[in-house]
Design goal:
This protein is α/β, with parallel strands linked by helices. The chain has a single domain (30-153), classed as Rossmann fold. 31% of the residues lie in helices and 14% in strands. It has a five-stranded parallel sheet. Helix 1 runs antiparallel to helix 5. The two termini are 20 Å apart.
C-alpha cells in the first residue's frame, strides 16, 4: 500500500499504488490465445460466441503468441505435441498466464494411462488456473477467468 494512498479527500485527486494501477489494467484487458485440440475447444467456441461473448468483459482473441497475455489450453496434449506447446508459451511476452481447461488438459482425462498422452499440461508449462469438467461449460470457463483476474490483481510488480 502506497504512503499517499487515500490521504487526499478532494474528489478530483486519486492516489493509488503502481501495483494496483497496473494490475487493474492487466486484469481488465486480457488478450488470449486459444489452444483447442479436443472437445473442450467446442465449449470454448460457445463461450466466445454471441450468447456469452467474452469480448464485452475485455477479453479478446489474438492469433499470435507474441501479442497475448494468456493461453487457454483446452484438450489432450500428447507427448509429440508438448514441445510445440512449450515453444508457444516461450514466445509469449511477460507477464503470461495459462488456463488449463478440461480434464484432458488438467490430468490427461480418460486417456491418462496412454503412452502418448501427457498427464496434464502442468508437466510442460506452469498453469495458473484450472477449469474442471469434461468438457467444462462456458460458465465454468468464465468463472475460471474471473479467478485468473483475482490472481492478476494480487501480483506484485517488480521493476527491473
Amino acid at each position: 500500500m502506497g504512503y499517499l494512498e487515500g490521504k487526499f479527500k478532494k474528489p478530483n485527486i486519486i492516489t493509488l499504488s503502481y501495483d494496483k494501477l497496473m494490475n487493474a489494467a492487466r486484469s481488465r484487458s486480457l488478450w488470449y490465445l486459444t489452444f483447442g485440440v479436443a472437445c473442450c475447444a467446442i465449449e470454448f467456441m460457445a463461450a466466445a460466441a454471441s450468447h456469452y461473448d467474452f469480448e464485452r468483459y475485455g477479453m479478446f482473441f489474438r492469433a499470435s503468441p507474441r501479442q497475448v497475455d494468456m493461453i487457454i489450453i483446452s484438450g489432450t496434449i500428447t507427448r509429440k505435441y508438448a514441445p510445440v506447446v512449450k515453444r508457444i508459451y516461450e514466445q509469449m511476452a511477460e507477464p503470461k498466464y495459462v488456463v488449463a481447461m478440461g480434464s484432458c488438459a488438467i490430468s490427461g482425462g480418460p486417456f491418462y494411462d496412454s503412452y502418448s498422452v501427457v498427464q496434464g499440461v502442468d508437466k510442460v508449462i506452469p498453469v495458473d488456473v484450472y477449469v474442471q469438467g469434461c468438457p467444462p461449460r462456458p460458465e465454468a470457463l468464465y468463472l475460471g477467468l474471473l479467478k485468473l483476474k483475482d490472481v492478476i490483481n494480487r501480483q506484485t510488480i517488480v521493476v527491473k
